[in-house]
Amino acid sequence: MQLVDVCTPGGSHAEISIAALDASKHVLCEKPLANTVAEAEAMAAAAERARARGIRAMTGFNYRRVPALALARQLVAAGRIGAIRHVRACYLQDWLVDPEFPLTWRLQAGQAGSGALGDLGAHLVDLAQYLTGQLITGVSAVTETFVTERPLAGGAGTGAVTVDDAALFTARLGPGTVASFEATRFATGRKNALRIELNGDRGSLAFDLERLNELEFTERAVKESEGGFRRILVTEPDHPYLAAWWPPGHVLGWEHTFTHQVRDLVTAIAEGRDPEPSFADGLQVQRVLAAVAGSAAHGSRWTPVPHPSGKP
Amino acid sequence: MQLVDVCTPGGSHAEISIAALDASKHVLCEKPLANTVAEAEAMAAAAERARARGIRAMTGFNYRRVPALALARQLVAAGRIGAIRHVRACYLQDWLVDPEFPLTWRLQAGQAGSGALGDLGAHLVDLAQYLTGQLITGVSAVTETFVTERPLAGGAGTGAVTVDDAALFTARLGPGTVASFEATRFATGRKNALRIELNGDRGSLAFDLERLNELEFTERAVKESEGGFRRILVTEPDHPYLAAWWPPGHVLGWEHTFTHQVRDLVTAIAEGRDPEPSFADGLQVQRVLAAVAGSAAHGSRWTPVPHPSGKP
Amino acid sequence: MQLVDVCTPGGSHAEISIAALDASKHVLCEKPLANTVAEAEAMAAAAERARARGIRAMTGFNYRRVPALALARQLVAAGRIGAIRHVRACYLQDWLVDPEFPLTWRLQAGQAGSGALGDLGAHLVDLAQYLTGQLITGVSAVTETFVTERPLAGGAGTGAVTVDDAALFTARLGPGTVASFEATRFATGRKNALRIELNGDRGSLAFDLERLNELEFTERAVKESEGGFRRILVTEPDHPYLAAWWPPGHVLGWEHTFTHQVRDLVTAIAEGRDPEPSFADGLQVQRVLAAVAGSAAHGSRWTPVPHPSGKP
Amino acid sequence: MQLVDVCTPGGSHAEISIAALDASKHVLCEKPLANTVAEAEAMAAAAERARARGIRAMTGFNYRRVPALALARQLVAAGRIGAIRHVRACYLQDWLVDPEFPLTWRLQAGQAGSGALGDLGAHLVDLAQYLTGQLITGVSAVTETFVTERPLAGGAGTGAVTVDDAALFTARLGPGTVASFEATRFATGRKNALRIELNGDRGSLAFDLERLNELEFTERAVKESEGGFRRILVTEPDHPYLAAWWPPGHVLGWEHTFTHQVRDLVTAIAEGRDPEPSFADGLQVQRVLAAVAGSAAHGSRWTPVPHPSGKP
Description:
Four copies of one chain form a homotetramer.
Chain A: E1 3-6, H1 13-22, E2 26-30, H2 37-51, E3 57-60, H3 67-77, E4 84-92, H4 109-112, H5 116-132, E5 138-144, E6 149-151, E7 158-160, E8 166-172, E9 178-184, E10 193-200, E11 203-208, E12 214-219, E13 229-233, H6 256-271, H7 279-297, E14 303-304
Helix pairs in contact in A: 1-2, 2-7, 5-7
């Protein structure tokens, strides 16, 4: 068994992944799956072909493997927060606030595809779909590039920033579920604040990646006078992924999202199962990103996201 | 001196306020100023006429008088957070989650004009404009009514909910300032969470009405290793409105937003000044609400908000 | 009916209160009840005499009337946290950190009796006994005066600080309940942090006066994977004192601890009942304070607190 | 170079460590260094002998290597919080609340020496001395065993718990510094809450191990209206230990306290320096623990802690 882990800039994901899959290597590809829907479609097709030969492909949305978010998914799937009314998701960083920060590959459309949208927003889109078990059906978006010229890394002059610095969009998932999304690298003081909140008709969940061992959970069933968001420290042995780790209260770090991802991948390979998220899941995220970019380019107009089945 | 405090449902604000102003009574009118832009325009015109006779009119956006938010305005005005990149505002309540909650006047368009948009979103719009010192220039919106039929209050059958349960919109203020807004009464577990965060290129501010005595503030000027949001307990004698209250750390309640509002109003009347926010300010908020409703009704298309000057 | 509210420095509480009670006035006396146990005993005796004539006396431990703490008492009394193992209480302020702060009456033993101990610690002692329903049976203490000379208020030279700046003590309540207490005015950055946590064998409660509308509560009965302290926003109509106030999530301020206190007092007078806390309760707190001072003066030795019954 | 890592129960630390040192192996010994002062003295003497041959010994107080606590030490050492008035430290866990939890070695004095005192309290004592740069000079203590009989692990009957379930003590460090300590395994709902707060005359610091990537810091120098505890997310490249880790905001887990400890140890060995904390530091902590036990056994009387120099 051989496994290729594709960690290059997005523009080369398709070429590498397809070659590896066609050569019967299992593939773990970083998110976002590709820079375009067309590339992602080709990758998903390659994954489907490889699958027939027992070759596995996985998209590296590592935040599905944060124990607190895996627990959130369990609670939603068990109906604990009921029908979901609201998704409220933002991913806030601040490393581009300084206009003297140089023009790296992440700021160039040719290599990165998009900016905050693909880098940060892709996580939000995947998590929203994963946690709710629903797909985003349409979006309305605004994007912005606050600093349009930056110094070249080498020091010789400046170059144009060709990606978004921030992307904001509203969305709908299934009937009766609305969502707001925001991805930015200009939120001064927010270092890695991936925040997601779900409000259902029976309860709510809230999470912040800066406190990745915690999940907030409230249920309407608790009588009002005793209600309130409870802070679950997701370090108990019966929490997802925790059986193999430390005693309660001894927190995990960010890197173990990758540890868990690889563990799930190699377990799936060993057991002959398809790992999740699949390349098809990655493709669907790509369709949402493309719809966001399209809406932003056309006066924020409502832009449907094609369904995987090809049906409207 | 006589003063009329207009606290009726929005549909009667115009008639009462205009009559009072024309009869040379000072007027404090609850927010939102009216149910339609036309009504608000008539009210602003009446206020302008009355002003010539020394009669004052004020819109009751009481949250400008939360000491923490007044402090936030001072910090922004002093340039402490620099050029504002992001406004992120939501007002989350949950009192409509139960589908058996009856059909009160607030759920009927004829009396209330709109739902969460006018009741909660109006506060967000006013605060965003007040805190940044900028006007919203355009919006893209989604609205939703999750529960479309509710029991009549009397117990005989059900009636149609004719207002929004939730309103989400993106917006632009001045050049290079983007914003996201969300108002809902379906955020299970959130009781009165008016949250607003401003990210500037020199610092950030964050506030939550459920902790109304606190303001979070961070500055880039602090060296990175010592940076972080500081929690200012806004109860010091040199904080806005606090000189008249308790010792440091002895917190204020919600009702004093009204205490401060009335104090500012009667002081302005006594000193022959115009109180803020004016009816013109209330009208401008109304224009934003109308643009939100219009955008939502037309596939979320980008909808400009007319400038007070009449210029584009 | 006449009522005397005794708000003078502690040294005059006994004279005023006893005179008022003997003249058949109801009395509300500020905490701590007196500067010495002997004074407090005389006051409790006067209250007992007056009681026979239907005259009521109350000690002004206003923090029993914080809704969140009244709710905490309800939960403890209902057995919701089980047998209490730990009480952890501190009251942290910082207004004496500056050595130039002048020598006011609160820093002179003759008028104030003690320093942080009587001013802040008295609240902790009363709350610990009120919330647990148990009495403190013994203590071991350390006290400290960090700044021993301060400027006289008039500006002419300095004077000696004759009270404690900080008091720390361990204690026992009923069998199997241990406690730690700390009162200080030198906790830089803490403005009014009265914090109390109770750990029982079935659950725990935690409170901080700087966020006086919130109570944290956890129960062991919740399965471990869903456990965690929940933040109850104590603003629901079925919370103590809240039926008369604002809608959920609209927070109360510090002053309403006094509003509730007076409401309970006049209601008790009207209904011919004894209000709580009584002068006997205030006397018992005084005995604890005296034991603390005695222990601190004798090498922190364990110092029993006499039981109200006179029995050991 | 050979290194022995002593992770056995405390009763065998001395034998193993001394043998290893005498055989010229470097030694990292888990905390607390020993079960008795006599053992710790023998170990410190062995370390001193070995040191002459270039052999290094280190006590495993791993929490000195939490980046947030290492940063706290830097800030204190730089005078940023001034003269320290208060240390407030507790270590709260809850894994013994259930009376059916079996009688493991940690609950038997023969192997563990003490209970919460040595297991948890030892960390607090070391941190208090490390962070302040001062030694504890005396203590007054209370200890308690809430559940005195527990099931034997094998299932056959019960056995006596011979260690403390909780230890509370007050202490003094240098002149004008008072401290409170509490260690317990009965704080229901607290999983790993090592909390330490320092109040100085220029500022304060606060930390909670359940949020180990965060340090709260406030300074008096900031004007009152802008003051407040700031939450430093200790993940910046210029934070202690962070240069080798992830980008800002990407948090570390508990295990890296050990990673950092070993890195510092092997670096010290390679560079021919003595690592910290030394066995002498471990011995001094042991003297404090012995004084705590002694005070608790003698009516909480004030019990001096011998100075390392042998002078009073």
